[in-house]
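haha ok so turns out i had the wrong file open the whole time. this is the CORRECT one, sorry everyone. sequence first:
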Amino acid sequence: MGGAQTLAATGQLAENMERIESLTQRLAAALAQKPMRDPGVEAPGADLMVNAGMAWAKMWAEQPARILEQQVKYWGATLAHYAEMQSQFARGKMTAPEDDGAEADKRFRNPLWRSHPYFNTVKTQYQINAQAMRDAAEELDMLNETDQYRLNWLTNQIIDMFAPTNFFATNPDAIERALETEGESLVKGLENLVRDVESHGGEMVVSLADNNAFAVGENIGTAKGEVVRQEKLYELIQFSPTTEKVRATPIVIFPPWINKFYILDLKPENSLIRWIVDQGYKLFVVSWKNPDPSYADTGLEDYVSAYLSVMDAIEEITAEPKLNAIGYCIGGTTLTLTLALMAQRGDDRVNSATFFTTLTDFSEQGEFVPFLQDDFVDGITAEVERSGIFASQLMTRTMSFLRANDLVWGPAIRSYLMGEAPPAFDLLYWNGDATNLPGKMTIDYLRGLCQQNLLVGDGYPMMGHKLHLSDVKLPLCAIGCETDHIAPWKYSWRGIKQMGSDNKRFIMSESGHIAGIVNPPSKKKYGHYTGDGDFSGEPEDWLEKASFNPGSWWPSWEKWLRDFSGEQVPARVPDGRFGPAPGSYVHQKY
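then structure:
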């Protein structure tokens, strides 16, 4: 019996070795397909490294004692750690300190990080090294705050990249899984790695979700409706009513064009689209084109023109002179540009505006500081001039490194070291279903809005006008999210403050950029804060006076919107000439 088991194990090992050899060849071929990109989109420019070197040289010349103190502190902690380890080895017992921080760091949840001498030593030394690196970066006297922020950010990226959990030999979970599966997990992990590199054209981008588990229009994005207009940049979807009567004034949602609109309709129980329709509203949603290189010269002005075209179409379809507009994220930023242009032209078709997690004042750039400096933007400029687009996988990669442990290293560990299949998670599937950005629009946005902040300053030039936040004077409501790292609620609030409206309201939802918005009343998960229309102070002042309300913000917003939505009229089924929702543009991938 034992001999048979040995033969079977030997056969399995030989088979795995053959698979590994084949996969290694495929991996090498796939990596060779990686496109050459401008160095500016791959790493910070040389100027940051030069400035850091100069700051270190200056400190060494003027304050050598500070550098020596750092080194003594580091070596003292390291020697104390090894002395403690030797003592515990001699006693034959590992007693890790209770406050070592491992419990708070989900990467070190495996009990072996505390109880096993090898893993505890690796973990503790990693923590000592990480703290020494952070201290060294933070204590450098950089030329300006931006360089200091970028250096600290880059240091933390390096620290996260070299975490012991990212390597098989120092990851107890991966070693245990390999032993349990007789090495099968490592082969599957290599298969997952090869699949990801092949599917991303030579880039190592970890798959966050099972791409075969979802199909838009079949098990996600299934709200009933019709495509009522199709243009070069968009499809306009009108969703079918579910009530006998609807409010006369239609609603249109402008989603961001860096993602697909179905984030608002992932599944029936958390679909904002379905909920709005169920409240008795005529709802239109824009589905943006996923641009290919032929859209290279499409700029922000073209998107504003598309907004106006959408409004023309809705007026033609409904015969209603007014509408209520909603903009989500960058869709809200562009809605602001559109409303400012309309105000200067005397066009008052928009009855009210709602902004979901929208930034309009970019004087504070938050976690995007590393990506909005000239070296990175210059790199993007060179990239879009070469290819015509800012590729979706570059955008996804950039956003992922804002939460690297959650969106890069954690998924990579599960997929490549543990050999796990990506989860069937609709939100993560949507996150990976991003769109390309037209070259000109990318630069318009990064230079004119993010870097130069023209909406707040000299005015954004467009169609013979200079557009300002103060031009937006219609009734408006903005929703920010408490833990949003993409559009921090305080930055969003400050933009709303500068708009010229006398009738404006702010709501702050608990949770982040997506979960704070996609927060249906039925879940009773996240609450929200509401306050008065006083924008005279700072966002902290507003929050101090705001009232907390349990549950979703959706009903609070709908109650506000009702006043701008007209009387109830008989509902009509949309007449679509371009096929049923979700349309064709949402399926396009390049």
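The CA atoms of residues 183 and 331 lie 48 Å apart.
again sry for the mixup
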